[in-house]
Amino acid sequence: MLICLAIILMAQEASADLTAFLGASQTSSTRKVRGVALSISLLFLGFEFEYSDTVEDTSTDAPSLRSGMFNIQLQTPSTGGLQFYGTVGGGLYQERLMDHRETNIGTNAGGGIKLAIVGPIGIRIDYRVFKLNGNPFHTNPQRFYVGLNLPF
To answer: Which residues, at least 6 apart from 4, have a Cβ–Cβ distance to it below 8 Å?
Structure first.
């Protein structure tokens, strides 16, 4: 009971942030990715929901990829406007190329950095590797993005 009381007394407020991002997926061809991530964290542990949409490129037979992933984040304390993090999670994806459509579950792992710029506004730089189940064209797409990060 004393340990629970100590944890409650030492607990800091939870923080949250919203990131709108643009990036690239380099699976079979480089294609534009856009999306949004919402993170809620307490100290070094956080939870994130992320939606991303990679555009289709029929000229190189590169499918579109939409994903909605729930992730757990481990992060460093913010020091000098820098915060490093690692993330792992899973969710649903849908891959499409012309008449082909695959909807299934997938997982992802990655990491990045959040950089404070001016006031509460910052930049988030992120890299992810996905593992897609089922019969996708590419079972391990990778993604890199830069996003505008707003804590609240």
So the answer is: none
Alpha carbon 111 to chain centroid distance? 8
Reported as a single tens digit per residue, the pLDDT across 38-87 is 999 988 999 999 999 999 999 999 999 999 999 999 999 988 999 999 99
Tell me the domain boundaries of the chain. 14-151
- CATH 2.40.160.20 is held by the domain 14-151: yes
The residues pairing with 133 across neighbouring beta strands, listed in sequence order, are: none
130 touches 91 (CB < 8 A) = no
Cα(29)–Cα(23) distance, rounded to whole angstroms? 13
For the chain, give the percent of residues with pLDDT over 70. 93
Point out which residues pair with 50 in neighbouring strands: 37, 69
Residue of 2, 15, 6, 3 lying closest to 114 (CA atoms) = 15
Helices (H), 27-84: none
